[in-house]
Write a structure and sequence with these properties.
It catalyses: UDP-N-acetyl-alpha-D-muramoyl-L-alanine + D-glutamate + ATP = UDP-N-acetyl-alpha-D-muramoyl-L-alanyl-D-glutamate + ADP + phosphate + H(+). This protein is of the alpha/beta class. The protein has 17 helices and 20 strands. A 6-stranded parallel sheet has the order 7-8-6-9-10-11, with helices on one face. Strand 17, helix 14 and strand 18 form a beta-alpha-beta unit. Helix 6 packs across helix 12. The model has no long low-confidence stretch (mean pLDDT 94).
């Protein structure tokens, strides 16, 4: 069997290693440049590879193709594979056939990284043999090749879900849905929503779907479509009929199979309404997997949070600097601005993914005193907020953006990097953007 892997990054190299171990004839092809450390791994493992090109005669003879999530369906080589009827799948779909581990699959437009790390933390503290993979950390396929975990907590993007045929998580979490990556879905929001719901499409009556019961897109889809999985909704305002999470007397509550878990909201390590929801989702998983209540409570209290997600960096001359580089869409920024309690200098911009800034208007009016645009093309942001804030400046480097923000901020203010956009115009990725932001603050 010939396995062709498109993309020589973390998921591609992990898939290649697993494929080789399982006896496939493996070839890795990347249209960009493969990083030196990955080239070394492929070479040591005797896996053929190429970069900066796709040689069609070496690709179109595949029995199965694993496409890395960053490669769009409309890439010419992918189109040709589909025309030839060659299966094009995701890393998750490829790897799952080689493990009998239980998986917890987590998706959503926002909050999935926090929820994934929090869920992993709860299960690990509970003594389970658990791995962390998907969109985060070491590739799932690589771990299946080298480790033996009983459970995997997987952060799944819509692109990874697009490439599944048979994969099903025993427990799925859908944190929320808001417009994102619309450039990959023909600017059709319903296609993106359907993509997120692929997480439950293969689930059975023995499985669970945990979801935000206050999310309009989720509610509308569930009203029109039936699912087999057991529903476990969570909400800040209502109470579930059966299983699910809710708030009562300033306590977070979660009922699973008639077992009620409860703890005061003010004891949660993470702040903000969105994080109460993330905690409810993670708690439901822990209960379903029989983690002791005391362990859940302790884990929710001592969780450290996520880098580049509302990360408090430093306070300088009474000004708090906050790194929210992971906020690559409007809905993420909504959460960030909603959690701000001081006048805010907002650093925003990058590669627009079809953003509609209207929903931010009330929050920007209320909380934002100045905007620093950080991107190659800021036209859309300027047109949206020109009449909303008094001060708007443009810049194309992080150090300059931070210096300008420092000048605009006064004691008691906050400087918030929450870009609402992808980072590829000026940075390698959102992590690079966040790290440059922190370095620029340390240099002030």
């Amino acid at each position: 069997m010939r396995l062709v892997v498109l993309g020589g990054g973390e998921s591609g190299v992990g898939t290649a290693i697993l494929g080789k171990k399982k006896g496939y004839d493996v070839f890795v092809s990347d249209f960009g440049k493969i990083k030196e450390n990955y080239k070394e791994v492929l070479t040591i493992n005797g896996i053929a590879w190429e970069d900066e090109k796709h040689t069609e005669e070496l690709i179109l003879n595949a029995d199965v193709v694993m496409k890395s999530p960053g490669i769009p369906e409309k890439a010419p080589v992918v189109k040709k594979l589909i025309e030839k009827g060659i299966p094009v799948i995701s890393e998750i779909e490829f790897a799952i056939q080689f493990t009998d581990a239980t998986t917890v699959g987590i998706t959503g437009s926002n909050g999935k990284t926090t929820t994934t790390l929090l869920t992993y933390h709860l299960l690990k503290q509970g003594g389970l043999n658990v791995g962390l993979a998907g969109n985060i950390g070491k590739s799932f396929a690589w771990q299946v090749a080298e480790n033996k975990h009983d459970i995997y907590v997987l952060e799944l993007s819509s692109f990874q879900l697009d490439g599944i045929i048979n994969y099903k998580p025993h427990i799925a979490i859908l944190t929320n849905i808001s417009p994102d990556h619309l450039d990959r879905y023909n600017y059709d929001y319903s296609l993106y929503i359907n993509s997120k719901f692929r997480i439950t499409k293969n689930q059975t009556e023995a499985d669970y779907l945990i979801y935000d019961n206050e999310d309009d897109a989720i509610q509308n889809w569930l009203n029109k479509n039936s699912i087999k999985a057991n529903k476990v909704p969570f909400s800040l305002t209502g109470k579930p009929e059966k299983d699910g999470g809710f708030i009562e007397n300033n306590n977070i509550n979660s009922t699973i199979k008639n077992e009620i878990f409860t703890m005061p909201i003010n004891e949660l390590a993470l702040e903000g309404k969105h994080n109460i929801k993330n905690a409810m989702a993670a708690t439901a998983v822990a209960q379903l997997l029989n983690i002791r209540k005391q362990t859940i409570r302790e884990s929710l209290t001592n969780f450290q949070g996520v880098e580049h997600r509302l990360e408090k960096v430093l306070k300088i001359q009474g000004v708090q600097y906050i790194n929210d580089s992971k906020a690559t869409n409007v809905n993420s920024v909504f959460y960030a601005l909603d959690s701000m309690s001081t006048p805010t200098v907002w650093i925003v911009g990058g590669v627009d993914k079809g953003n509609d800034y209207d929903e931010l208007m009330p929050l920007v009016r209320e909380k934002v005193k100045a905007i620093v645009c950080l991107g190659v093309d800021n036209t859309k942001i300027i047109n949206a907020f020109n009449n909303v804030v008094d001060v708007m400046v443009e810049t194309t480097s992080m150090s300059e953006a931070v210096q300008l923000a420092q000048r605009l901020a006064e004691k008691g203010d906050s400087v918030l990097l929450s870009p609402a956009c992808a980072s590829f115009d000026l940075f390698e990725n959102y992590e690079d953007r966040g790290k440059q932001f922190k370095q620029a603050i340390y240099n002030l």
